[in-house]
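Per your request, structure below.
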């Protein structure tokens, strides 16, 4: 699978194109990141349709978007292997097409049991609150198949909610927000023109004892060692 990276205005866009089936294209996944957020792409070696990034907001986390189509064949080992490639803490998101009473379905199917075992085996937390996330366009029935999974250290930092406006999709958008605000970034500045260089030179000379010889192999190390011994 080839991940496509595009740079939109102020954003980086990582995508895995959808696949054609019965004349329609489905299953595409993407992660869109504001370029003010420090991040990098995580190269995944997996047969699963997944993409991931490492991003720093108030802390550095791995964010992985995954799509498991109803016809996809995978095992618990495939999920284990995917998680092993994501440096913790992890936020694992999107459409698992898995049903379980644990996250709001009326029944638990084989795939739902696989995901339940994944949560238990890796001590992961489920952010879903039981709300339905999918509305079937033909029958009008709803179900919960979009999951948001995190490592426990992230769980209390995040809020999770389904957004009512589907915007033309058969899936409801999900909003995940952090309680912790991103730290403000300030760049230090120095007014070198107002420095008292004469006093600085005199003080440096008296504390360091002597000027470093020009033929030293590592003058910076010599300076540091001399400064530490003078304390």
């Amino acid at each position: 699978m080839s991940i496509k990276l595009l740079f939109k205005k102020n954003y980086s866009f990582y995508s895995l194109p959808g696949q054609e089936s019965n004349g329609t294209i489905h299953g595409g996944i993407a992660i869109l990141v504001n370029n003010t957020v420090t991040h990098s792409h995580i190269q995944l070696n997996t047969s699963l349709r997944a993409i991931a990034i490492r991003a720093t907001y108030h802390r550095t986390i791995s964010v992985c978007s995954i799509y498991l189509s109803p016809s996809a064949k995978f095992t618990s080992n495939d999920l284990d292997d995917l998680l092993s490639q994501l440096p913790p803490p992890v936020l694992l998101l999107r459409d698992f097409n898995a049903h379980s009473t644990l996250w709001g379905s009326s029944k638990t199917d084989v795939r739902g049991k696989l995901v339940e075992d994944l949560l238990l085996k890796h001590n992961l937390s489920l952010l879903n609150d039981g709300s339905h996330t999918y509305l079937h366009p033909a029958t009008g029935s709803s179900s919960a198949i979009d999951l948001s999974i995190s490592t426990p250290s992230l769980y209390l930092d995040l809020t999770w909610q389904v957004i009512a406006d589907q915007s033309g999709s058969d899936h409801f958008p999900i909003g995940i927000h952090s309680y912790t605000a991103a730290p403000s970034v300030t760049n230090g500045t120095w007014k070198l023109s107002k420095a008292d260089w004469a006093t600085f030179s005199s003080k440096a000379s008296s504390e360091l004892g002597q000027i470093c010889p020009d033929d030293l192999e590592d003058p910076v190390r010599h300076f540091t060692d001399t400064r530490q011994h003078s304390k």
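The chain has two domains: 4-178, 192-229.

Regards,
D.
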